[in-house]
Write a sequence for this structure.
């Protein structure tokens, strides 16, 4: 009886240490991957891990790997001029690079992304004095890059909608949501009828201005979801108009202006 | 009576599930599947055991089994701007051997031969060595690999249809696995094309 217990104990120990070794190797491999990506994107510039300036909210386990929401929050928006979102395990890891202008507010930026395999996701803030600060989150989702584009991609490609959250008040930062109708084919999806790869055609850049001042410009490649939805912060004035300009990889050019009702104090 | 009614209900449910299509709904083809790789597979494979994550996990933990991954490599989009980073890497079950491009049922004879020889090396020529074929769910690649193994005379073949997705969902560790170098030398397959 006692002997059995010992054998069972030893077996349990062996299994634990085996998976423990894998876990350690895995952490090391993920760290190496990040080091390689960081150097590819930022060169030799140091990236700090400073608590508090930037946080990333993402579901730990995503319901739909082709539609994973990522919320990047910045605690001191006045200090920050740009953000980069990197999904480490995606074959094209840089999901988005965003530069904010004088009418933009980096306080909260929300994107919907495709995640190819369980992955570390890094969000990096670039401060106005040129420092880089990172935060990381592990997201459990897989297959998002090659998941077929289902319903919802119909309609006029490039059609845009823009909604201001609550009522914008002049002089007080507000949130707005931009939706662009676009299949955002990333070239990794197979057509379900023909079983051939659908050629890539995705939104590669978006520029939003407000009263001719830059809110943000965004560049992306294969990782933004079908029908890109971007929530961003801006600084309303007494009277305002947004202009959105977007380009896709097959030469599609889309522009639209939106009048924003603003409450004056 | 009640159990009979239940059995009848279950039978009807099974038949209608098969008719409606869905994971595991396809009938077993005679030989290898030469149609599109993504798609509903059969739920069985003659001559092989169909295993779940728990069984695959205990085979990994026990050691001694050869895990063969036939996941298709990431497809590099043609429109990728030259400045964009393209860094595909493949994560698999720790210890698995990856044969990207080995999924189709109609491989060129030279590739078929290279695959067979490579498996002989990996199993040390022991046809009774446990061998596990996997890729992703609803993917004919692993079914074909299992079929090949059975045809080549391996006696302990397991097909793990849930594959890497099921493995990750069960919170099992993965590791970055390069394409098998011998296979890659023959087929010129890399992690992403």
């Amino acid at each position: 009886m006692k002997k059995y217990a010992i054998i069972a104990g030893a077996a349990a120990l062996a299994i634990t240490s085996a998976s423990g070794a894998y876990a350690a190797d895995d952490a090391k491999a993920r760290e190496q991957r990040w080091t390689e990506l960081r150097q590819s994107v930022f060169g030799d510039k140091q990236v700090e891990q400073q608590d508090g300036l930037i946080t990333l909210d993402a579901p730990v386990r995503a319901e739909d790997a082709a539609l994973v929401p990522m919320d990047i929050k910045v605690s001191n928006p006045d200090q920050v001029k740009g953000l980069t979102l990197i999904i480490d395990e995606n074959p094209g890891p840089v999901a988005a690079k965003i530069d904010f202008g004088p009418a933009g507010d980096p306080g909260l930026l929300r994107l919907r992304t495709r995640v190819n395999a369980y992955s570390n996701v890094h969000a990096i803030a670039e401060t106005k004095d040129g420092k880089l600060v990172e935060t990381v989150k592990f997201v459990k989702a897989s297959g998002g890059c090659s998941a077929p584009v289902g319903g919802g991609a119909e309609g006029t490609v490039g059609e845009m909608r823009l909604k201001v959250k609550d009522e914008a008040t002049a002089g007080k930062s507000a949130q707005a949501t931009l939706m662009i109708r676009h299949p955002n084919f990333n070239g990794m999806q197979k057509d379900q009828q023909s079983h051939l790869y659908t050629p890539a055609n995705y939104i590669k850049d978006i520029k939003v201005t407000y009263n001719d001042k830059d809110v943000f410009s965004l560049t992306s490649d294969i990782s933004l979801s079908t029908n890109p939805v971007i929530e961003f912060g801006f600084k309303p004035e007494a009277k305002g108009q947004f202009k959105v300009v977007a380009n896709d990889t097959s030469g599609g050019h889309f522009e639209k202006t939106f009048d924003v009702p603003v409450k004056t104090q | 009576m009640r159990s009979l009614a239940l059995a009848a209900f279950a039978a009807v449910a099974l038949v209608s599930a098969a008719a409606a299509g869905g994971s595991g709904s396809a009938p077993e083809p005679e030989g290898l599947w030469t149609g599109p790789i993504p798609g509903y597979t059969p739920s069985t494979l003659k001559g092989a055991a169909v295993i779940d994550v728990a069984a695959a996990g205990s085979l990994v933990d026990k050691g001694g089994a050869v895990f063969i991954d036939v996941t298709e490599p990431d497809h590099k989009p043609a429109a990728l701007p030259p400045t964009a980073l393209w860094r595909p890497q493949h994560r698999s079950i720790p210890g698995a051997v990856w044969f990207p491009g080995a999924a189709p049922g109609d491989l060129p004879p030279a590739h078929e031969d290279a695959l067979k020889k490579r498996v002989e090396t990996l199993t040390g020529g022991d046809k009774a060595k446990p061998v596990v074929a996997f890729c992703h769910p609803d993917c004919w690649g692993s079914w074909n690999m299992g079929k090949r193994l059975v045809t080549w005379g391996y006696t302990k073949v397991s097909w793990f249809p849930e594959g890497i997705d099921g493995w990750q969902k069960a919170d099992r560790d993965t590791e970055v696995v390069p394409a098998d170098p011998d296979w890659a030398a023959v087929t010129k397959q890399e992690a992403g094309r």
Q: What stands out?
A: Chain B has one domain: 24-187.
